[in-house]
Amino acid sequence: MPLDGAERAIEAVGRAGETPVVLGDAGGPLAVFGLADTVREDARVTLEALRSAGVEKFMMLTGDAEAPARRTAEALGVGYRAQLLPEQKVETVRDLVEKTGSAGMVGDGVNDAPALAASSVGFAMGAAGTDVALETADVALMQDDLPKLAEAVRLSRFAERIIRQNVAASILIKGLFVLLAPFGLVALWLAVLADMGTSIAVTLNGLRLFKKGYG
């Protein structure tokens, strides 16, 4: 079907970041429609929550055309790379990991699986994710709930702090008793008490993970 008379409308739709769809008949085009993905209502909330959790930079990787990708990225205030094939997504993720030291990847499709594997930590959306993405990712969110992503980041960082605290406390207490034992300054009952006390202390400290707010 010839597009005589519709070129300007198609270009205008493209500049707006939408995908043009032409409706016509044998006589030519009748109308030009612009189609575009809508940003999820909880996307901006999730990005703000991630920023509050300490995540500084975001980048959208997509196979979509340049204009629609730019439209979505500008609406969310994130960087983007468009028209990427699956292998190009992998290369981009590896490049980000090399430059920044670590980079997380969130995805749910078959094409996202290689990039999830290449990232430092891969997050798969459980409810909407494909089996391949779920098997490849390091973390699977069992609900299609974007804000859970920020919660998972906060919880993992809080867990890391608790692990560091527990390891430091254990080394400090047991190291102190190892140094004092050769001088006869540590009774057997006191050493046993310290060992059991340390185990109980680190266990109680670990239970803080169940506290809302994660510290």
**What is the CATH superfamily of the largest domain?**
HAD superfamily/HAD-like
Oligomer: single chain
Level-2 CATH architecture of the largest domain: 3-Layer(aba) Sandwich
What portion of residues belong to β-strands?
15-25%
Q: Radius of gyration from the CA trace?
A: 26 Å
Q: Would you give the CATH topology of the largest domain?
A: Rossmann fold
Topology at a glance:
Elements: H1 7-15, E1 19-25, E2 28-35, H2 43-52, E3 59-61, H3 66-76, E4 79-81, H4 86-100, E5 104-107, H5 113-118, E6 121-125, H6 131-136, E7 139-141, H7 147-180, H8 188-206
Helix pairs in contact: 2-7, 7-8
Structure report:
- There is one protein chain.
- The protein starts with 6 loop residues before the first helix and ends in a 9-residue tail after the last helix.
- β5 (104-107), α5 and β6 form a beta-alpha-beta unit.
- It has helices spanning 7-15, 43-52, 66-76, 86-100, 113-118, 131-136, 147-180, 188-206; strands at residues 19-25, 28-35, 59-61, 79-81, 104-107, 121-125, 139-141.
- The model has no long low-confidence stretch (mean pLDDT 85).
- It is α/β, with parallel strands linked by helices.
- α2 runs parallel beside α7 (147-180) and α7 runs antiparallel to α8.
- The strands form 3 sheets. It has a 3-stranded parallel sheet with strand order 5-6-7. Strands 1-2 form a two-stranded antiparallel sheet.
